Amino acid sequence: MPDPRVQKLAKVLVHYSLGLKPGQRLYVISTPLGAPLAREVLHESLQSGLLTDVYLRLEEDTELRLRNANEEQLTDISPLRRLPIETYDGLLHILAPANTRALAGIDPQRNAIFGKAAGELTRIITDRSARGEMRWTLTLFPTQSAAQDAEMSLAEYEDFVYTAGMLDREDPVSLWRAEAERQRKLIAWFAGKKSVHMSGPDVDLRLSIEGRTFIECAGRENFPDGEIFACPVEDSAEGWVRFAYPAVFSGNEVTDVEMRFEKGKAVAEKASKGREFLTAMLNMDEGSRRLGEWGIGTNYDIQRFTREMLFDEKIGGTIHLALGDGMPEAGGLNKSSLHWDMLCDMRQGEIIVDGEAVYRNGRFILDL
Known about the structure:
The chain is α+β, with helices and mostly antiparallel strands. It is 33% helix and 27% strand.
């Protein structure tokens, strides 16, 4: 018998997160392990009149390409991959990993080449989304591999995942709409603000948000969700940050990452583990050493680090900084095939905006 929480998640994804209309096209992509959720989404979307295609790709697909492809194959973006991204009305990506470390032993340079080519598809998604031509949502179906990364049993991890999405509540959609309203109040306060100074044991960083727009994140493009973010002015970051949580990207875990920024650019980086991979990713292209995102986690139902940024960047009491590509809907101008979110603990930190303290010890202190 299907887990009723999976059925509830499918309903929330189809009717709230994606919100497509009858006759529109939806493309669902996952691995075979994500089939239980993909099946429920297909059932719900058909009931809703959507034209839906489901693709369950080989779990080993990316690993095989990175290990065996020649340069032409490594950079090829096939018409089949382009078609749904360029033409469909909705895209649902269900993460369901069998092995989260499958790419850990790949040559960082090959990883960078592959990522740079695939970055074109990401830009198409963000551009179409910014123009209102496409809705997209990223979610996760719990697997043993993801649970192991999070240092939980599968049953414990399932409870964690569904609680983070408020699927254990009677009406999660109403709760996510209420979260959206709270975020809109924060965003309204940030409108017109210019300078940001973050300080604490792990950070002393200044940046500008002048002319930039904050975006609410309440279960639409990510599920679960819980953050607000903006794209910093590309040449504004000055200072230092230490990412106390491991930075995970493409199956590689980099620990104790520290970076120093000058005129918006990461000019020095170090790590106790994975330094070579970190540097290779930061050298991917012209924009990969600049910040594409500054986000503040607002989901206090998420308090455990899981090595899956879909959850971790939402942890209440943290901020995250993404190296690389900026989001057009937030006014971001930085272009890169990299978008790597890294997590900084702010539970002993402070954020000052235009000279006013707005956030202290992991919580907003504004009277809204």
